Amino acid sequence: MCGIVGVLGDAPPGAVDVRLGVGMLAHRGPDSSSLLELEHATFGHTLLSIIGEEPVRQPLVSRDRRSALTFNGEIYNFIEIRTSDRQIADATTGGSDTEVLFDGLVR
Fold it and tell me: Which residue, 44, 46, 67, 60, is CA-closest to 97?
């Protein structure tokens, strides 16, 4: 199971605490980890790749940087969703359930 950690605040939160949290969750997501620093939030994600053609680094960020998603779950029918919706199919670059969710809702 993936690990998710984050800090929210009025001022730019320090990434040090989130980096420490990601390190503590490394056993939950040994396939990759990443950090996202925004103006009022910092998120970290450790990935345990279960489904999908190749892992997608999370958190994902929209092109306009107004939305972000870090997701811990599986959408088992994401291939059917992607192939049934041309807009989602055109927007996704990888084979990830997270991309299908994010592109379907945000991008």
Answer: 60
Q: Catalytic site residues? A: 2
pTM above 0.70, yes or no: yes
The sign of the dihedral angle between the CA atoms of 51, 53, 54, 55 is negative
DSSP 40-95: SEEEEEEE---SSSS---SSEE-TTSS-EE---S--TTHHHHHHH-HHHHHH--SS
pLDDT tens-digit map of 17-70? 888 888 898 888 778 888 888 888 889 998 887 765 566 778 888 777 788 888
In angstroms, how far apart are the furthest CA atoms of the chain? 42
d(CA 63, CA 43): 17
Closest CA to 103 of 82, 79, 73, 75: 82
